[in-house]
Write a structure and sequence with these properties.
This protein is of the alpha/beta class and 333 residues long. The chain has a domain of 230 residues: NAD(P)-binding Rossmann-like Domain (Rossmann fold, 3-Layer(aba) Sandwich). Strand 1, helix 1 and strand 2 form a beta-alpha-beta unit. The protein binds nicotinamide-adenine-dinucleotide. Nicotinamide-adenine-dinucleotide binds next to helix 1 and strand 7.
Length: 333
């Protein structure tokens, strides 16, 4: 089995790569990524791993890699993966997150890829009062990042056929330990501050956000690789477990972290104008796809604390862990 992951150097892609390489001896992972946030953490010594440091906008290169390596499945993760990163240079961001997408799909189809799995985002819903936002809910994108994540979905759906399957996942905000950490995601950032500085700053706090443990994210991609997707071709699935207010997440973090540090956590509240708020339901992935989400935010906080204890994460306030700060220095073209 040959899997090509675009964005395989990133937060989700790195964990997914290690997870799959550890689990399967007969799977080869091709990581197609420009590695904006570094590549030292990648498993270069693994014989089942190939690193292609390339741009997803380079259509000739992407085509060549698929053709020469007879890839079976593409998991498309690469993009500028949050609002501020997208806003840094919206024109260039559009080329990465949207304009090249059709070519990635067409090239995959042409090269006999069996399945194309697209990581969209539950942020496509933007804002909703509904306590149960399912996949049929209208999209109210509040930012261009949300908008273009959503606009890629019908491009994939319009290209599927019996030989070329497309599956779209709308993940909640992912949390937990990865070989390439991101400390600009809510649970991760709160745990980093609580563990290393003994305080948490809560901006706003009233907005609801769904969350997903990174192990469940990886289990889901693994499940989709092997699942017979005939009946689900072109379908969209939410993937998230707990819908919580940011201030509720902060309370969970403040309860767990002192078990490791023996220090009380100070909670500082201030105002915020980020009004994204939505609560997704992932019943469809459970009922239709029969995929069970098993972990929760508490697990992610414990995992991060253990990773800090083992010194697996060094210099956690370094800018490399905050996408926008790294990208500001890169001057993307
Ligand atoms: N992390 C989350 O909470 C979350 C939630 C919902 C959806 N998603 C989606 O899941 C995917 C992975 O998220 P992540 O947190 O791992 O993101 P990430 O920012 O950590 O990784 C993205 C990777 O894409 C690469 N990349 C960006 N532009 C590229 C280009 N032009 N060519 C080649 N590579 C390029 C970057 O170098 C990076 O390694 C993204 O599509 C994101 O939108 C993530």
């Amino acid at each position: 089995m040959k899997i090509l992951i675009t964005g395989g150097s990133g937060y989700v892609g790195s964990r997914l790569t290690y997870f799959l390489l550890e689990k399967y001896d007969d799977m080869h992972i091709y990581n197609y990524d420009l590695s904006f946030f570094g590549d030292k953490h990648l498993p270069f010594n693994n014989k089942n791993y190939t690193y292609i440091k390339e741009d997803i906008r380079n259509s000739d290169k992407f085509n060549e890699i698929l053709k020469n390596n007879k890839i079976d499945i593409v998991i498309h993760l690469a993009c500028l993966s949050n609002d501020p990163s997208f806003e840094l240079n919206p024109k260039i961001s559009r080329t990465i997150n949207y304009e090249c997408f059709e070519n990635l799909v067409l090239s995959s189809k042409k090269n006999n890829i069996k399945k194309f799995i697209y990581a969209s985002s539950s942020s496509v819903y933007g804002v909703s009062e509904s306590p149960r936002v399912d996949e049929t809910h209208k999209l109210v994108p509040l930012t261009d990042y949300n908008k273009y994540k959503g606009l890629c979905e019908p491009i994939l759906q319009s290209n599927i056929n019996d030989d070329f399957h497309g599956i779209i996942i709308r993940p909640a905000t992912v949390c937990g330990y990865s070989e390439k950490m991101r400390f600009d995601l809510s649970v991760n950032i709160l745990t980093n501050f609580a563990y290393n500085k003994n305080y948490i700053n809560i901006f706003g706090g009233e907005q609801y956000r769904p969350n997903l443990h990174i192990d469940d994210m990886c289990n889901l991609y693994d499940y989709l690789i092997f699942k017979d997707t005939n009946k689900f071709n072109g379908e969209i699935f939410n993937a998230g477990s707990q819908n919580l207010k940011i201030k509720e997440i902060a309370k969970i973090v403040a309860k767990i972290v002192p078990q490791y540090t023996n220090k009380e956590i100070e909670l500082n509240y201030s105002k915020n104008d980020d009004n994204r708020s939505y609560r997704i339901t992932s019943d469809k992935i459970n009922d239709v796809l029969n995929f069970k989400i098993e972990k929760n935010i508490e697990d992610a906080v414990h995992d991060l604390c253990k990773a800090f204890e083992k010194n697996l994460i060094k210099d956690s306030f370094n800018e490399q862990f905050v996408n926008i700060k790294t990208l500001q220095k890169l001057n993307l073209t």
